[in-house]
Specification:
With 214 residues, the chain is α/β, with parallel strands linked by helices. It is 28% helix and 29% strand. Bound molecules: ligand PMT. Its EC number is 4.1.1.36, 6.3.2.5.
Length: 214
C-alpha cells in the first residue's frame, strides 16, 4: 500500500446510519455501525487526502487528521454535505441513509393509546444522486448494501446515479462487523476484493479510486 495515493485531494464522505425522529425519545434507524465509513476515512487520510466526514450517530473515534461533522437525520446529512461539496474533489457515500422519514415528528412523547399505531413516512432526498448530478460534481463513489442479487442492484446504481464507482456488499457480510467482502463495480466491469478487515478493504478501495483518477 502506497501511503500518498490521494495527496492533494479533498474527500467528502458520509458514514453511519441516520436517525429519523418519531418523537423526542424514539426514531427509525438501522444497524450501520460506521466502521466501514470510518475505516475508509482513515485510509483516505493516510493516503494524503484532506478528509471531511459527515457522520450519523455512531460510537467510532474520529480518525487522525479527519474533520468530522456529526448529524442525526438524512436532511441534516444532506445539508452538511451540500455545505462542503463545492470544495471537494471526491465524494464517497458510505452512510446507510434512511430512505424514508416520518411525515411528522411529535413534539411530545407519543402515548400508548390504541392497540395499533400507524405512522406515515415520506421519501428522504437521495444525497448521493443529488451530489453526482451537480453541474460541477466531484468524482462520486457510492456503496450498495443488498441482501441478494448484488451484481444487478450495484450495476443498476452505477448507471442510474451516474457514479464512477460502486462498492457492493451483502448486508450480512458488511453491516456491523469488523470485516467485509466487497465487489467494486466501474465502467470496466466488476472487481471482487477478498474478505478482509474493514481497514484492509478500505485501502483496496482507495487504491482503486486512485487508479480510476489517474
Ligand atoms: O457501518 P458498518 O456497520 O461498517 O456497515 C457498512 C455498510 C454495510 C453500511 C456499508 O458498507 C454500506 O454498504 N453502505 C451503504 C448502505 C446503503 O444504505 O446502501 P443503499 O444501497 O441504500 O444506498 C446506495 C448509496 O446511496 C449509498 O452510497 C448511500 O450512502 C447513498 N444514499 C442512499 C439513500 C439516500 N437517501 N441518500 C444517499 O446518499
Amino acid at each position: 500500500f502506497q501511503p500518498k495515493l490521494l495527496a492533494g485531494k479533498r474527500v467528502l464522505m458520509t458514514a453511519g446510519p441516520t436517525f429519523e425522529a418519531l418523537d423526542p425519545v424514539r426514531g427509525l434507524t438501522n444497524l450501520s455501525s460506521g466502521k466501514m465509513g470510518f475505516a475508509l476515512a482513515r485510509a483516505c487520510a493516510e493516503a494524503g487526502a484532506e478528509v471531511t466526514l459527515v457522520s450519523g450517530p455512531v460510537s467510532q473515534p474520529t480518525p487522525a487528521g479527519v474533520t468530522r461533522v456529526d448529524v442525526k437525520s438524512a436532511l441534516q446529512m444532506r445539508e452538511a454535505v451540500l455545505n462542503h461539496v463545492s470544495t471537494s474533489d471526491i465524494f464517497i457515500g458510505v452512510a446507510a441513509v434512511a430512505d424514508y422519514r416520518p411525515v411528522e415528528t411529535a413534539a411530545d412523547k407519543i402515548k400508548k393509546t390504541g392497540e395499533t399505531l400507524t405512522v406515515e413516512f415520506t421519501r428522504n432526498p437521495d444525497i448521493l444522486a443529488e451530489v453526482a448530478a451537480l453541474p460541477a460534481a466531484p468524482f462520486s463513489v457510492g456503496f450498495a448494501a443488498e441482501s441478494r442479487d448484488l451484481d444487478n442492484y450495484a450495476q443498476g446504481k452505477l448507471s442510474a446515479k451516474k457514479l464512477k464507482l460502486v462498492v457492493g456488499n451483502l448486508v450480512q457480510d458488511g453491516m456491523g462487523g469488523d470485516t467485509n467482502q466487497v465487489v467494486l463495480f466501474d465502467a470496466a466491469g466488476r472487481h471482487p476484493l477478498p474478505l478482509a478487515s474493514k481497514d484492509e478493504v478500505a485501502r483496496g478501495i482507495v487504491s482503486h479510486i486512485s487508479k480510476l483518477l489517474s
